[in-house]
Amino acid sequence: MELMAAQETLCLERIALTLATLFDWVNQPAEADYSNSVCWTRPEREWIKCNIDATMNKVQGASSFAVVIRDHTGAFIQAVSD
């Protein structure tokens, strides 16, 4: 019985440590690295370009996406997001 209680205590301590580590990681400020940033380039004449981006937050269970369509002059055609 004592062995079982000791194992349960160890398990709870590991869970607490894991949650504390996760909490610290989630609350760290994001360090943006723009060294590999890519700039938008126009498509060839008579073409359109469809750019898509998405993000997901596993902790909150949330996700989002965006789509932007532009022509060869860079003029906006259509966009959608969620």
3D architecture notes:
The protein has 82 residues and is α+β, with helices and mostly antiparallel strands. It has two domains: 1-28; 44-82, no CATH class. Helix content is 30%, strand content 32%. It has one helix and three strands. The chain has one helix at residues 2-26, and strands spanning 48-57, 62-71, 76-81. The protein has a three-stranded antiparallel β-sheet, with no helix packed on it. A hairpin with a 4-residue loop joins β2 (62-71) and β3 (76-81). The longest helix is centred in the first third of the chain and has 25 residues, at 2-26. It is elongated. The termini are far apart. 0% of the residues are buried. The model has no long low-confidence stretch (mean pLDDT 78). This is RNase H type-1 domain-containing protein.
Give me the secondary-structure topology.
Elements: H1 2-26, E1 48-57, E2 62-71, E3 76-81
Antiparallel strand pairs: 1-2, 2-3
Summarize the structure.
With 82 residues, the protein is α+β, with helices and mostly antiparallel strands. It has one helix at 2-26; strands at residues 48-57, 62-71, 76-81.
Terminal-residue CA separation: 53 Å
Strand order of the largest sheet: 1-2-3
- For the residues shown, what is the average pLDDT? 78
Content of β-strand: 25-35%
Query: What's the helix-strand series?
Result: HEEE
How many domains, as an integer?
2
What form results from the Cα inertia axes? elongated
Provide the gyration radius in Å. 23 Å
Q: Which runs of at least 5 residues are low in confidence (pLDDT < 50)?
A: none
Organism: Gossypium armourianum
Protein name: RNase H type-1 domain-containing protein
